[in-house]
Amino acid sequence: MSLQKSWVESANSATTDFPLNNLPCGVFSVGDGDARCGVAIGDMILDVAALEAEGLLRLADHPVFDVPFWNELMELGPDAWADFRSQLAGFLTEGAPKRYLAEDHLVPQADAVMHLPFLVAEYTDFYAGRNHAYNVGSMFRDPANALPPNWLHLPIGYNGRASSVVVSGTDIRRPWGQLKPHGADVPQFAPSRRFDFELEVGAVVGTASEGMVSVAAADAMIFGYVLLNDWSARDIQAWEYQPLGPFQAKATATTISPWIVMRAALEPFRKPTPPREVLLLPYLTEPGPLLYDIALEVGLAPAGQPETVISRSNMTALYYAPAQQLCHHTTSGCPMTVGDLLGSGTISGAEKDSRGSLLELSWGGKEPITLGTGESRSFIEDGDTVTLRGAAIGAGYRIGFGECSGTLIAAHADPIGAGR
Amino acid sequence: MSLQKSWVESANSATTDFPLNNLPCGVFSVGDGDARCGVAIGDMILDVAALEAEGLLRLADHPVFDVPFWNELMELGPDAWADFRSQLAGFLTEGAPKRYLAEDHLVPQADAVMHLPFLVAEYTDFYAGRNHAYNVGSMFRDPANALPPNWLHLPIGYNGRASSVVVSGTDIRRPWGQLKPHGADVPQFAPSRRFDFELEVGAVVGTASEGMVSVAAADAMIFGYVLLNDWSARDIQAWEYQPLGPFQAKATATTISPWIVMRAALEPFRKPTPPREVLLLPYLTEPGPLLYDIALEVGLAPAGQPETVISRSNMTALYYAPAQQLCHHTTSGCPMTVGDLLGSGTISGAEKDSRGSLLELSWGGKEPITLGTGESRSFIEDGDTVTLRGAAIGAGYRIGFGECSGTLIAAHADPIGAGR
Prior knowledge:
Oligomer: homodimer
CATH architecture of the largest domain in chain A: Alpha-Beta Complex
CATH class of the largest domain in chain A: Alpha Beta
Helix content of chain A: 10-25%
Mean pLDDT of chain A: 97
Radius of gyration of chain A: 21 Å
């Protein structure tokens, strides 16, 4: 597929994340105005809430954009999602007769503040990156038995905390927690000293399920994808995670990109999962390519200093695709809900500079990385800004997510006093 | 405290779960009528939605009972919760002048169908029963090291799946899942063969948090309590839970009682947590008695046969109280939300007949229990009904929850076909 040209000139650049081919879904506000649904096009946002209010955009017999989240469009199902993209193209395509109707409803992205694009119903995080699981297993167990025995048979996942999901740009407060440093006899309650990021892609579930769904049906349930940083306190995690898994280590925040890239925009970039090392049970078999060729990178910028790109990876490094994760999620009969968010797990490539967390990049702090500024990092320092970027690269265009960014701010001096 | 007398005669019996002292919160419907909020009194339900609609009950400058869930009353905060109980007493107390206003809004419980009493925002399950953790650790590790090293220092918890919470009376479908029986080389996808219940109490969070809260503040955030059965597929759990904890094993369903007993009704029954075996970090210290003397029991009835009580326990067997769990839940900065549900963890007593799961009662299936019918059980069989009951016993009255019950029905023959 090639670039679909728009009369919004900035959308035709090979460097924008938001050509007409993309049309990602966000929620924005300008000044004191209400937050509302919009679609990115070049360096502008098309105010779809306004278009709907004026009767120019109609998806159902009731409004779906009179709320500052995309869940109501999701509720309408895949046919409506396709209809929506088609109606938008009718406004934004080069030479579109309806151009004049849209012109008044374009807002510069530079003037807008972005909000969480959807109501996160529940949040599940997976562990579906082969290299990440191997690296972590090598560090904490041994390289010969790095992968847990179940890892090649099922997509391991755990439930996270939806209330902690925030939009790009939200400051992240360094958490307190129970830690037990090496050699200590008893745990202490202190700010985390090993605070980390995780490079992930999140799948947004757009239709609900009752009972188990097949991998193919699960794929069709996915409304779109976001970039996702599952902030992780490694020292809290190390002490708490046995035997019931990560809990407070992952509950401080999870940052997502402001834009949901709809599945349709990524169709030209489908890729199969890697070859299986052991045969999967039939229910998990890949019916067709389920991953996407999405180039990913992580930048880290100390306070007031330039950014260094510290990792470059690709979504194709996942061993289990989001559709396989979602299918497995329903095996027990677990009902899935519109607005559920599935984190892919950390997407580390095979090379050292493609690792998707500082835990792996610095090998547990034993091999600190050096930034372009000359500083070194084992984990994130106060004031550091971590930014994820990602795009599927087409011929003369790219399908991007915008930035998924957050700055770590210092822990509260007295966490209980800071609460209530 | 003694019985508070009501003109609703059935509320004055020593055997009802619902004297005037209780006033628990439920959602009910009659015939084809809408589901709405009601309060149990003796064998009747007071239709508080109708009282509010008629202007007889007023908690805020907007209605809170025009929805079939209690979250909007919770949102008003603890002062409103107290005001609500006081206004209800004004209708229901023996000799109350406002009796005539309430009489038309009483519905027999026998005519009502009960619904989920609140919107479950997120669901967390803890592991705070000392005997349960010891028993499970003894079975799966060894008795000398039964408790994980962190267990005596923090309330271990994991996030569960809110969408799977159902009200008492909902049938439970035996789940499929990945299992790896002892001795098998590879896993299989099959219906669970070791399906179990867990006897728990659930705390309903009634006010939201930002940042960390103290144990005392956490206690004040709790709106009330329910009985909770965290259905568990032990064979799915055994294969999946390393290293990130239980996932599909716990996602089939969690059943709660139809009635939320408000914290105020339980105040006379407060009891301290057991003596500490190691000193807790100061943030977790108990500021005053945090548990309640709630007698618990589990009944199991094979299809069409009488029930056998297979366990008798008490909430005071918990090592960490719900307020300590909730405080710990906020340590990382995790925002807690109105309608969050915290399962206590399985409440097993010290004696064999007080164990809160079949896993423990049958010692992993090695010592099947015998029912009154002569049948034996290691795990739950298709058609079995498991019922939890609980009550705080006062002088001549009891504060109960109603039954928390569910019947296990056979697995689908073809789980994907049964879904879509």
